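Standup notes
- DV: blocked on the single-chain target, sequence here:
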Amino acid sequence: MAKTMSQLPYHYGVKIRVFPSTEQKRLIKRNSDASRFIYNQMNGMNNDLFWLKQVKIPITIVLDRIADLTERLKRPSTAISNSHGWLNHPDFDSLMKANAIKNYKTAWKLFHQVHQTGTPKFHKRSYTQTYQTSCLYSAKVTVPTMSNGSVRLNDTHHLQLPKLGRLRFKGFPSKLLSRADDVRVGTTTVSMDTVGHYFVSLQLGSAYPFVAKQRVTKSKIGIDLNLDNFLTDSNGQVIANPRYYRTIKGRLAKAQRKLSRRARRAKKSQRRLSGSKNYQKQRLLVAKLQLKVANQRKNFLHHVSTALIKNHDLVVAEELRSKNMLRNHALAMSISDVGWRTLLNMLAYKAELYGRKFLTINPRNTTQTCSDCGHVLTGKNKLTLADRKWTCPNCGVFHVRDHNAAKNILAKGLELL
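- DV (later): unblocked, structure below
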């Protein structure tokens, strides 16, 4: 019997750009809107049930409503479709409905585990579109592959999706195409960004590794993330901060002011923004500028994280809480521009993918401690952000601030091991 996605030991994700026809774009939008509607219906029923249970007086109408909602939530897909008949239209993917309900339940599960982002919120309408479907395999299929499921590759440039049919794509990794017979497809996400580009994200699973095992380098490294330069490692190497946002900050601000004026004019003329051509044209320009910066930053972070993981057996970094650091308004823009949290997430999953070790440690006193003698600067001797070089008052060793911090980070990581 073929293994399910959860039973397979190796997983991989790939996102490809697709080029749908006008009819396929219409179907994507309809399924995206329906997915959001189902998610919000689930949220609405749960909210109603919660507040009704707070009523202490046993009123008959309240008890009946509680019983009705409880019964509907046992079979939410059937209950929502029965109440809203338009969801039974053949345009809609039945697996989209199941995934919307599953995502809502997953949101609650994450809330119970983390208690950080709060309970699930209603999804608002936006200029982006997204919905999920699943790849199903017939009972006759003994070996699930990338070419015999409901989501499958027809050839090197065409993809088959439920309801949408055949989609043209580009940019599929050749290493995956060459081994399509031992890889199966799981959850599939169809999306459109604010610029109007369409993508399909595939969750892949296999019994064999997706990347070759890396050779042992016997190299261990600590990295200090800072604003003066992007990264300094314990070997003294420095990676400069590209500051992508700052390069277009002026252009973006000017474009956003123009967008704001066009929004005011449309409102004054009592025109909807969706029907205002000038507003939509300017919105697209702003979205393209923002997308350019996001892509530049993501590309930079991918190169840095891959190089660190491939060249070192152990990588140790500070556990930075960007959300807390962003409260400092003087540094908020610079912190957002570097993408520290994204880099740490990339290092974590790439370490697992390539069979390396990645650790994060508590950053407490990593900057204020001498890496030679362990002396900690306190009180008036404490370093400020302006102090980039210093001499230890205890042992007299000269330090470059970031290099010293990186060495302390590596030492803390080795202690954890």
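- Follow-up: The longest helix spans residues 277-311.
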